[in-house]
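Annual report, structural modelling task.

Input specification for the zinc ion complex:
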Amino acid sequence: MQITEVRIKLMEDPSERLLAFCSITLDDCFVVRDLKIIQGQSGPFVAMPSRKIMAHCPNCGCKNHLKANYCNQCGRRLPQETAARDEQGRVRLYADIAHPINSTCREQIQQAVIQAYQLELKKAQQPGYVSSYEDVDIPAPSPHLYPSQGSSTPSARQPRSQVNTGKSTSEKRPPQQ
Ligand SMILES: [Zn+2]
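The model returned the following structure:
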């Protein structure tokens, strides 16, 4: 297996432990996204894409986050002792979605990604730098453009025309027979 491309999105706050997001392409034909580069105690390391582990409510079967005390669906108190724990006895909250199954592969990914990360740091110092990583998430709206709900009443924010349109459509509806 060859890692044929690495794309990096550097985080803007250098004080955070999350340094960058990245994607890797394997053998020019398979892409894995959402790997993270995290600042560890002995330098940056690569974390595989992961998801939050969910637990089914014993009462209604609804999925809840492991740390939830009560079911989001039925409100029943959730058992805590069933969660898997790591070697340190801490509750495992995340599971890798894609990951290497041997240390050779893990090392290969780590090396390729960290090398690309260091190159990206240099590129980012050039004027007109644009990240090659495609961010599919929608950015949070700017607080200047969208005032929070507390700053204006719902009736003041609702456009008058929208209220009128709703009324006229109901008036145009043919009478029931
Ligand atoms: Zn429930």
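The chain has a mean pLDDT of 83.
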